[in-house]
Amino acid sequence: MLREFRTGNEYPYNRSTSVRWVVSHVMRYPLLPIGFVILAIVAISGFTYTSIQIQQAFDIIKDRKPIEQLVGVSIAIFVVRSAFALIDMINTVIREFLASRMERDAREELYISLLSKSQTFHNRQRVGDLMAAATGDVSQLNMMISPGISLIIEATTQLITPVIAIASISIQLLPIPLLFVASLIWGLIRYNRQLGPVAGMMRGQYGVVSATLSEAIQGIEVVKATAREKFEADKFRAVIARYRDLFVQEGEIKARYIPFLFYGLMTGLGFGHAMWLQSTGVITTGQVVAFMTLISLFQFPTFISLFMFSLVQFGLSGAQRILKIINTETEMDENPVGESHVVSGQLEFKNVSFGYGDANILTDISFSAKPGETIAIVGQTGSGKTTLTRLVNRTYDSTEGVVSIDGIDVRLWNLDSLRSQISMIEQDIFLFSKTIAENIAFGARNDVPRERIIWAAQQAQAHDFISGFPEGYDTVVGERGVTLSGGQRQRIAIARAFLTNPRILILDDSTSAIDSATEDQIQRAMREVLKGRTTLLITHRLAQIRWADRIVVIRRGRIEAQGSHEELMQQSMSYRRIFARDEHNQPST
Amino acid sequence: MGFVLDGLDAEAYDRQYSDGELLRRITAYFRPHVKTMVLVSIVTAVGSIFPPLAAKLISKGIDDAAKGEDVTIVLKWAAFITFLGVVGWLVNYLRQRYTAIAVGEVVLKVREDSMNAVLARDMSFYDEFASGKVVSRVLSDTNDFSSVVTLSIELLSQVMLVIAVTASLFFVNVTLGWITLAISPLVIVAALAFRRIARSATQQAQRASSLVNSAVSETVSGIGVAKSFRREALIYKEFAETNAMQYRIKVRQSIIFGSIWPVLGSITGLALVVLVYFGGRISIENPANLSVGDWFLFIQSVGLFFFPLTSIASFWSQFQLGLAAGERVFALMDAEARVTQSDSLPVTEMPGEVVFKNVRFAYNPESVVLNDFNLHIKVGEKIAIVGHTGAGKSSIVKLLLRFYEFQGGSIFIDGRDIRTLDLAAYRTHTGLVPQVPFLFSGNVMENIRYGRPEADDTEVLKAAQALGGGEWLADLPDGLMSDVGERGSRLSLGQRQLVALARVLLRNPSIFFLDEATASIDPFTEAQIQEGLDVVMQGRTSIVIAHRLSTVRSADRILVLKNGDVIEQGSHESLLAGGGHYAELYNTYFRHQTFDYRPWEG
Predict the structure, then answer these.
(1) How sure is the predictor about A518, in pLDDT bands with cuts at 50, 70 and 90?
(2) What three-state secondary structure class fits B331?
(3) Are residues A439 and A327 in the same domain?
(4) Do both B72 and B191 map to the same domain?
(5) N or C: which end of chain B has fewer CB within 10 A?
(6) Would you call B595 and A543 a contact, using CB atoms and an 8 Å cutoff?
(7) Nearest CA to B519 among A557, A485, A382?
């Protein structure tokens, strides 16, 4: 698989199916699962053996033997039970270690795979989905191991060991317990088949209810202004009534849980059968007691089965979602042997098209920029401006045509060399919860001395507001209510660019500054940073557009017009339209 | 009762209800289902007798067998136990089924009531409380509240079972009964102690996990940035540390939680040993006091008795959570309305004249926004309001829409006191485009029609085409039928604004309110919006909170607001020439919107 990032020591998991993947995770630490199963069998066998000890006590009491013998049996029961509790405790620790390791390793595996994927992948993927996988789905894996699968193992053992013990008392006692085990399995399958679809519908309907409600509440201003309260109330009532129906339906299925009935039947029938065998001399009364104690052990698997399977189901579907992310092919790699030298900044798009699947987002784009030129890209939101700029640093690769830098196809460049010479200052600037100084120095490879950071901030017109914070450059972003405005974030991003000193700059300046003073600073900072760099500038500001060396007008993924401001005012209707008002309403000078 | 969660998720409208009042409110919801609840209670009571009865029958049968009685008698006991098994299942079925029905109905009603309460709140409520929290009250708190009921019934059945078992044990042998009871505090103490440990572990884990989740969230969201700077190794290192921390916390917490079962297991083990030994001793010394079958009855009862006891201890905390949730739901319902109408006179014709007379308005007593505010807006006048944040611009619009209540003076619409009007009828004559227009999921057509549901398709199309020559429809993938996505996410802000304008145009209101977007919109869409605004404002009383230079320029009258007073008014040119507060505002908000803006020079 092509990858953009590797760490040295990655464990080879089997990623062919979700079940195999889970198994390969569990078997990474073979001692834990094997130890768990062995200890569970030992513990439950001991637990089962108590029934035989109770039979011994019963015989002592029935035949009125000396008390000392009873003391012996009591001590034996105590020893067995203590050992059971001890092993159970050890197994709890093993189980939780295994489950938490599974969670940790899966999250790590997922994260490394996310880092290794191309930006194309990340741009297509919603961060919310990745977050859900990295938090919710991996913790489902934990729950699947503990209590999920561990309980299934214990419950199964607690079905098998009593059956063996009963067989050792007398083979003739077996039919009813065996019949019970068979019907329990049948009942469980039936129960899960009935519950599964209803539970799925309930989850879906809960989503609908929640969406309906939040929409009404978030849109309350419109609801109230248009006096549509009753409409929203009725809509909500309809969706919650449907949810109620499903809730009752689910309650009905749970109430009908048939293994309870089988358990009750087995107790009565088993007792009768044992008594019959006793009367014919096949077994002793003590053995009846042992038998009754043994079948009462079935209670645990009968009750616990109500919920343990759904945990496994949730875990497996979580595993499936995680695997889907991990197994997504990513189309770019680091290209370590590619071109690697200083860029002069000549940029060219030649008949470039780009799209996912059939739909083209960009079609036949051609333009070029000489080193140091500023090209303004204008067009409606959604016309493809941002996508166009992303072909430059290979966030995406064009599907047709060539994007070249210094005359060399970007795909032939070493990715590291290419990206380190291109800076993107995007619309939404993501800052880490680190100090402002660390955020500014984020792009730089080496340790940057404080003076350089301050210099960069000064160039970016950010020094003043940073110094205004009590802790200055050591202010942690996001902590103690320190939030930065869009304009401030933008200047921090510009400061970053001063440190990384790229040859090509991509500036998305379509955010707004509502006051002129901030705008003054941002524009001065921008003007400073784009000096001597080839710049692609996405902006909504008419004044900015006007002063660019060249303007490219994009409409629905195609170039509608390009040229200088004066040329476009003559050639392009839609370009003229956006300037219409301002020209009319120029204050008379 | 809500003290358990004090300060955890409290809102200003939260209040404490006495236990009695809370109980009254809860029972009121169950009153319509009283028959169902009585049935459930009876069935639960009956059901709790079966397990001890079956145990007693088994011990009786064993005694008979030990005495060598005729097997047919014993087989009758066995048949009876089988019968009990069937009836027990049936009883359990009825209990669960009818509980589900009653709870389903009650939750439905509680949700309906809380939704109605929410919709009746005025806008001050929504500005104050985050929508997510309101949603969670209507959805998850009502759900937790219903668990009170399910749990109560469950609790009832467990308590009855414990009582029935205890009674049967005492009936058989008083001494052993006391011994059994003597061990039970151990279970309760263990369960309660565990609850304390678990609660503090959970709180720690929750705090840690929210830290970890936000760290994971940051490392995931930061991947894009890290990639463009090729700093993957750095961000991976941070992730790995967070992940390792999460692992340590999780293991510790799970082991604490998991250890309750071995602990309880050893206590029941101890109980078993004690009963085997002491019971056996009593029986050996004097079989008349305790037959060998009854000894076995005690052995069987270990499970019957101690299991419900542990669940009772754990139910209690969930029960409290449910009650606290109920309290939050009722507080939401009982929050007081602030906007009140004195009358509901019909509004048929409305030309759109607006008069503020000595109006006084404050969001809270400390911060008065408007004081003795006077304003007269003529029919069909185009008003632009400008001023710094907090000057009172949006208050004027909020008061006119009756989103907020004012404290003094009066507002007249066409000479009628706004408080005497039928609010819904009045609002049908107003149209609002908020700063960030809200779209409902569905297509563009449905969203335009939201303002006037009875409008037909041609009317909708006409309204849409009236804006900017309808050219904006061509830029949508499927024209009017384009899906807008969740909250309009598939449309740009500018397109959403056009939809909201069309929505208003379709309503044909007498008074039009616009809170102009502060966010920037691409120049092509902006041109369409400006052209569309010309259409919408044509011949209508229009009040615009202005952020665009072109808007203030085209207004009939600009109101310059400062500290809740109109300190200047007039046209753009005259105000600018006057050099007063407007000139300062211009220099602060509008200067950079001019065509010749070049701050980097000079």
Answers:
(1) confident
(2) helix
(3) no
(4) no
(5) C
(6) yes
(7) A485
Mean confidence (pLDDT) of chain A: 87
Q: Nearest by CB to A577, which of B66, B527, B591?
A: B527
Chain A hits for B511, CB-CB cut-off 8 Å, are: none
Mutate to test the interface with A, among B44, B122, B227 (most CBs of A within 10 A): B227
| Minimum distance, in Å, between the CA of residue A89 and any CA atom of chain B | 6
For the segment A278-333, what is each residue's pLDDT rounded down to a tens digit?
A: 988 899 989 999 999 999 999 889 988 877 887 888 888 889 889 988 888 766 66
Q: Report strand pairing: B541-545 vs B382-386.
A: parallel
d(CA A382, CA A375): 19
- State the residue range of the domain holding A157: 1-170+307-333
- Contact between A390 and A585 (Cβ < 8 Å): no
User: Which 8-state DSSP code applies to residue B591?
Assistant: G
Q: What is the pLDDT of residues A531-562, one digit of tens each?
A: 889 999 998 888 888 889 999 999 888 999 99
3-state secondary structure of A363: strand
Strands A400-405 and A550-555: unpaired
**Which distant-in-sequence residues (6+ apart) come within 8 Å of A135 by Cβ?**
B213, B216, B217
Q: What is the CATH number for B17? A: 1.20.1560.10
Q: For strand A534-539 and strand A550-555, is the pairing parallel, antiparallel, or unpaired?
A: unpaired
Angle at B282 between CA B279 and CA B284, to 5 degrees: 105
Residue A3 — very low, low, confident or very high, per pLDDT cuts 50/70/90? low
On whether both B26 and B145 belong to a single domain, the answer is yes
Chain A CA closest to residue B209? A135
Q: How far apart are CA A191 and CA A195, in angstroms?
A: 6
- Return d(Cα A151, Cα B465) in angstroms, integer: 64
**Measured in whole angstroms, how far is the alpha carbon of residue B196 from the centre of its chain?**
28
Instruction: Tell me the C-alpha distance between B211 and B570, whole Å.
Output: 54
Contact predicate A379/A406, CB 8 Å: no
Q: Return the residue in B80, B95, B251 with the most chain A beta carbons within 10 A, the one to mutate for interface testing.
A: B251
Whether residues B137 and B10 share a domain: the answer is: yes
Q: Give A145's contacts in chain B (Cβ within 8 Å).
A: none
CA dihedral over B206, B209, B215, B218, signed as positive or negative: negative
- Local structure of A473: helix, strand or coil: helix
pLDDT higher than 70, residue B7: no
Q: Using CB atoms, which residue from A78, A84, A528 is nearest to B265?
A: A84
Taking the Cβ of residue A293 and every Cβ of chain B, the question of whether any pair is shorter than 8 Å is answered with yes
Domain boundary among A333, A351, A386: A333
Number of domains in chain B: 2
The number of beta carbons lying within 10 Å of the beta carbon of residue B264 is: 21
- Contact check, Cβ <8 Å, B240/A108: yes
**pLDDT tens per residue across span A94-104:** 999 999 999 99
Do B134 and B188 lie in one domain? The reply is no
Question: What is the per-residue DSSP string for A100-137?
Answer: HHHHHHHHHHHHHHHHHS-HHHHHHS-HHHHHHIIIII
Single-letter code of the amino acid located at B368: V
Render pLDDT for B53-103 as a digit per residue (tens, 0 to 9). 988 899 888 888 888 778 888 888 899 999 999 999 999 999 989 999 988
Q: Cα–Cα–Cα angle for B529, B534, B538, nearest 5°?
A: 145
End position of a domain, from candidates A299, A333, A367:
A333
Instruction: Provide, as residue numbers in chain B, all residues whose Cβ is less than 8 Å from the Cβ of A586.
Output: 595
Specify whether the CB–CB gap between A50 and B272 falls below 8 A: yes
Provide the residue count of chain B: 602
Q: Is A189 on the interface with B (CB under 8 A)?
A: no
Check: CB of residue A46 under 8 Å from CB of residue A84. yes
Amino acid at B65: A
Q: Residue A237: which of B112, B218, B228 has the nearest Cβ?
A: B112
CB contact under 8 A, A77 and B432: no
